[in-house]
């Protein structure tokens, strides 16, 4: 002990009556890792008591719910914050079988693991020991996905994290007692002791309510109390390993026991469990209701704005990062500034955001937020995307731009269930992939797959939000593109001295109010029955199409539109080709040229020799007569 220097912290372990059982000392020797040394009060020596006690037993005694964390520092941080917490001596390094878990009998236990692999593995093992000791229920909390590796309860308290909300509503998985004597692992319906099928049935009996497997995705989903979460930590395998480990201990045949302990058995049991009808699920059943929005506080019915409790039966895998409620004065001021105080444009942006909350694509719209920079468009998009959480996705700009190669189908797989898809920063000289835009906004079913998985199909629910400083070119101007594209001008440039580097952070502090603002917009959109873009959006969109309409400019500059005018297709195309090449526009084929004229209502015509042409259009300066008139024509 002398070489460790003086203790830097100490924690007293008391029994339920307040008598000292042990003391744990922390040492931080220079140039070495921290060390913990226990002192046994009964034996009066530096050694852990046998069995090892739990921390804070006087507090545990009268509590209905106890939070188990890793280490005394974490436990004391929660206790000081008013939470009944405990830890086993040495945290995740504590031997589970040498700890006395009996003080947790009859308690509701939440395990808050550190955000790392050892923390989760310890939590699963400790959960079984806690249930075997008679705990009423035991859940393991999922640390926030955005937290750093190793993040723990002490970090949460120090950062000002909302501990109360996390304990009440945070995502979690319930653990069941494998060795429940009222429901033995090997029952009457499992005739062959120790088979993979029998063990899979044992797992399913305990976890069928909370675990689903989607074969097309190659993924387990687990109910965490608020949504069905993609399980990426192999927790299902860990729980199955617990089933196999328990069967191993029960086996009286050493050869069978050795077999049950192998990774091959665990893997075989997991594959058997996947196929059980109580676990197996299809892709179509998830996030299917476009009018439900999952939030941390409950499920919002977007038709009415009312909220209800989370329910497994809703089959929701997505969740927002906010619960609608309160106001958002900073956000409202921001919207007023970027719109120049235009009330009609502000109301339209609110309806647009509200429409994005739904899974409906009935407007068939692509929202293009255009401005030359420092005008708030990216802040607008990024704020909404952050608040929408799992419902939002980022897409590379190439997804919507014309490219030489097709995008990989895995790019689209990540958009399943998304409602808000953002792409930021258009590049100069790029062109819209018009057929892709029409398909993605038209509600057509999408075929996609995850890496190394089979293809699956889904109905798109997402709305496209593209923000950029450059306007992509449009090659084919038609009614379908005109109906879809909404160009929203962001024309107010914020001067350098008024730019707030912390604006995004300030806005997200109002995320609940901003989501309530968007919900108001959703209800307003439904009442109105349409998005109803204001005059400045309509004018900016029309101006955009006019500037991109090369064929329209050619018709205005080089042609006459008269009922009795007639021209051969070859002559029109020759003039178009000459004009387009001089103007730097795409020429295309003669067939494409003819199709574009037809889409503009120009009537097809043939002369007496059967040569194709068009009626109602002629060249202002033809190089030769377009046709030879006949007396009977």
Automatic annotation (TrEMBL):
It comes from the Bacteria. One of its GO terms (molecular function) is ATP binding. Coiled coil: none annotated. The keyword DNA repair does not apply. Transmembrane segments: none annotated. InterPro entries: Helicase_put_C_phage/plasmid, Helicase_SF3_DNA-vir, NrS-1_pol-like_helicase, ORF904-like_C, P-loop_NTPase, Phage/plasmid_primase_P4_C, TOPRIM_DnaG/twinkle. Residues 344-503 form the SF3 helicase domain. It holds the Pfam family DUF5906. Keywords: ATP-binding, Helicase, Hydrolase, Nucleotide-binding. PANTHER family: ATP BINDING PROTEIN-RELATED, SF3 HELICASE DOMAIN-CONTAINING PROTEIN. This is Putative DNA primase/helicase.
